[in-house]
Predict the 3D structure of the following.
Amino acid sequence: MTTRVLKADQSALDEAARLIRAGEVVGFPTETVYGLGANALDGAAVRKIFEAKGRPGDNPLIVHIADLDQIAPLIEGPLPPQAQALAQAFWPGPLTMILPKSGLIPPEVSAGLDTVGIRMPVHPVAQALIRRCGRPIAAPSANRSGRPSPTAAAHVLEDMDGRVPLILDGGPCGVGLESTVLDVGAQPPRVLRPGGVTPEMIAGVLGPVEVDGSALRPLEAGEVARSPGMKYRHYAPRGAMTVVRGARAQERIAQLYDRAQAAGQRACILALEAHMPCYGQRRALSLGPDAAAAAARLFDLLRAMDQDGIERIFCEAVEARGLGLAVMNRLGRAAAFDFIDAGEEGAR
Ligand code: TXA
Ligand code: MG
C-alpha cells in the first residue's frame, strides 16, 4: 500500500472522509497528538487500526465526536450530570471521559470492557473530518505501539508508511501530549492518564479528584491497570533514559553525562531552557521554558534521540503539577521510571 500525505485542505478532507466511510484507516491531526482514525461503528475497520499499530487487542480505543448530539447513541443511559458539567467546561478539548457503553460500540473499540472513552477534539481538521464522515471516529495515537506519539505528520509517516492509505497534514500539534483520560463514574472521579486538562482544572468543576497512583510509578506486581494502556511500555526512545529531580539535578546530570561519555556511550541531555548554560559544551537539547513547552516538544525530542543514535539520555524533571504532571507521567514511562533524586544531600 502506498501512503499519501496531503495538506489538510477541503479536497484532502473529502478524500479522508470517503476512505473512512469505506472502512479504511486515515492519519489525522488533533490538538493533542496525531490519531489513526476509522469508523468507530465498524468493527472490521477498527481491527485495521490494531493491525497498522501492532497494538495489543486488549487496549481500548477512544471514540471522537464533533457534537454533543453524537454522544447519546454511544453510551448506556443519560449523560451523568458530572460529565455534562465537564463537557460544558472542557469540550471541545483534550479530555476523554470513560462512560458506560451502548450496544452500538463494537467490542473491538472497547476491547471487551463495558465502558467507552469519548472525546471531542478542538482541532479544526479533526472536527471537519468527523463532520464530513457523519460518524464518530475511533482513534488511538498514530504511532507504532510502544513508540513516542506523533506530533507532526512526518512522525506518522515514519511509523505508518505503507500501512495506511492517507495521512492528513495539519501541521504540528499544539498540546503535544495525549488527552486526559478521566473515569467520571468513580467516587471521587479519577484521572487514569494525566493530560492537557489538568486535575486542578477538573477539580475546579467537580470538586475533589483522584489521580491514579500509576501516573508516576510503575504498576505493582498483580495490580490491575484501570486504564489498560498504562500497563504497556510507552513512549520509549531506543536509548536508556534517566530522569533527575531535585535541587542539584544539573550538577548530577553533568556528572552522569560525563561518565557515560567516558564509557564510550553517545549521550544527550534534555534540559529546561534556563538551565542550558549549566551544561557547557555537552550535547544538550532544550525542553523549552516551562512544562507547557516541554509537553509540546517532548515526543519530537524523543524521536530526535533515536534519529541521532543516542544511547543514553539524561532528562531534567519538571514540577509534577498542572501540565507538569502529564509531562512527568510520559517521562516516567519513557524512562521505565528510572528516576534519581539529587537533593541537597545528593543521595541515591
Ligand atoms: O489525545 C488523545 O487521547 C489521542 C488523540 C488521537 O485523541 N488518542 C490517544 O489514544 O492517545 P490512545 O489509544 O493512544 O490512548 C488511549 C488511552 C489508553 O491508555 C487506553 O487504555 C485508555 O485510553 N482507554 C481507552 N478506553 C478506555 C476505557 N474504556 N477504560 C479505560 N481506559 C481506556
Ligand atoms: Mg497511544
